[in-house]
Design goal:
Elements: H1 7-24, H2 27-43, H3 47-58, H4 65-77, H5 85-99, H6 106-122, H7 126-134, H8 146-162, H9 166-173, H10 185-194, H11 209-226, H12 230-241, H13 244-247, H14 250-266, H15 271-281, H16 290-300, H17 307-320, H18 333-352, E1 355-357, H19 358-365, H20 369-381, E2 388-390, E3 395-397, H21 404-441
Helix pairs in contact: 1-2, 2-3, 2-4, 3-5, 4-5, 5-6, 6-7, 7-8, 8-9, 8-11, 9-11, 11-12, 12-14, 14-16, 15-16, 19-20
Length: about 450
């Protein structure tokens, strides 16, 4: 075989050897003959013959699974050695067609599809690359390493976001549970050794689990930015902030903590936002950026915030965010910030007043009467606040209307408390009387 000669004759000779080995059920011999044929074609740089031989060998009657697997794995090593992009695409497509529908080469097929999608992406064909990647459901592959699965799904999500297919991006992202990033990898490796299923090692170019966690949350930030869901964006930055590598490096955690503060301020008021706000204020690292500590303090202090004063103080910091990690806060961020300040002020007013005139409310909010009424109505509709407006009188009532059952229950509670007090008083009087009687008899 090494003595030169015609390529076709050498291939024909090896095909006869392969046939004998296959019919005899010799797995090692069949694999050796099949891979030798591919090596001959590769050494001769005969790419068309290589493609033809891969298809021919895979379609031979009663072909062994191990031989097909060995052929696909060997041919995959030749992909990067191809002379031009057309030859590379042709070889990948040939291997794809050979491995299609064969469960024993599903991982190899997934990697081939990823390579083809990367070429399409480099050529600017984002939609085609995304369609290719979506065909592969790697979450069902038992033998694929966990990190490789996650990296693959993240690539699928990224391509969907690039083509602005946000619905499919969300569906794909739900295949990854955030808890998977907190798993103990050392324990998992022990389990895998004990188990029967052999899980392949992830390729060297696959990032670590913590790096994948960062990529996952960065993609989620991109997704939530589309719908301006500030609270979810804040939670994503919070998860990035918790990564040990980020927490150890001030150059990395300061921009992330700034983003957490801004998105907390931009988030509508609700229990989750309040909880995150208080936990962020307790963070010792916040003392490194005192400006933002002051900003968050203003939000939890039940006092009216003057919008012009706040904007003049933080305008430079707000503008500076576009130069920081993660880029600008969004197109509507400045407008939404003003909206949040107005909402905060209305909540403060509702705490101190049970009834207030619309004119006075508008003066406190530094708005016109129409604007104040509109913002108040929006908060009532979103159930952030309970209020009623008497428009002819121009009065806002923040008290909740109680039904008859609530009133009766409050009366019953008050009577119960009163009777308890009477009983305690009687007991104390009786006790004092007994003490004095005892003193007199002595």
């Amino acid at each position: 075989m090494e003595g030169g000669g015609d390529l076709e004759a050498q291939i024909e000779q090896l095909l006869n050897v392969e046939k004998q080995m296959r019919l005899n059920g010799d797995v090692a011999g069949t694999k050796k003959a099949a891979t030798d044929i591919l090596q001959l074609c590769f050494d001769a740089r005969s790419w068309k013959t290589l493609n033809d031989q891969i298809v021919l060998l895979s379609k031979r009657r009663g072909q062994l699974k191990q031989a097909v697997t060995a052929m696909v794995q060997q041919a995959m090593q030749y992909i990067n050695e191809t002379p031009d992009i057309e030859t590379k695409i042709e070889l990948i497509k040939t291997l794809n067609s050979v491995s299609a529908g064969k469960i024993y080469v599903e991982i190899e097929r997934a990697r081939l599809v990823k390579k083809l999608a990367k070429i399409k992406e480099e050529q600017g064909q984002i939609a085609e690359a995304a369609d290719l990647m979506q065909e592969v459901a790697v979450e069902t592959f038992g033998a694929m390493a966990k990190t490789e699965k996650i990296a693959y799904i993240l690539d699928q999500v990224r391509l969907c976001l690039d083509r602005e297919d946000y619905v499919r991006a969300q569906i794909l992202s739900r295949k990854i549970s955030p808890r998977v990033f907190d798993a103990d990898t050392s324990k998992e490796k022990k389990k895998l050794k004990e188990g029967e299923n052999i899980v392949e090692e992830a390729p060297a170019d696959i990032p670590s689990l913590l790096e994948l966690k960062r990529i996952y949350y960065q993609l989620m930030i991109r997704y939530h930015s589309h719908s301006n869901d500030y609270l979810e964006i804040c939670r994503c930055y919070k998860s990035i902030y918790e990564i040990p590598v980020v927490k150890e490096n001030p150059a990395e955690w300061i921009p992330v903590l700034r983003k957490i503060c801004w998105y907390l301020v931009l988030s509508p008021h609700d229990p989750m936002q309040s909880s995150l706000l208080n936990s962020t204020l307790e963070d010792k690292n916040l003392s490194e950026i005192p400006h933002f500590r002051l900003l968050l303090k203003q939000l939890i202090t039940m006092e009216v915030i003057l919008w012009t004063g706040l904007w003049n103080t933080f305008k430079d910091e707000f503008e500076n965010e576009k130069n920081m990690l993660g880029g600008p806060l969004g197109d509507k961020a400045a407008e939404d910030l003003r909206q949040r300040v107005i909402e905060h002020n209305i909540l403060v007013v509702s705490k101190y007043y049970s009834r207030i005139s619309l004119k006075r409310l508008a003066d406190l909010l530094c708005l016109t009467i129409q604007e104040a009424e509109k913002h108040l109505a929006d908060m009532v509709v979103s159930k952030a606040l309970v209020a009623k407006v008497d428009r002819p009188m121009g009065i806002v009532c923040f008290q909740t209307a109680k039904d008859s059952n609530d009133i009766l229950n409050s009366w019953a509670m008050n009577l119960e408390k009163l009777l308890d007090l009477v009983e305690k008083s009687c007991h104390q009087i009786h006790k004092e009387t007994m003490v004095h009687k005892a003193a007199l008899t002595v």
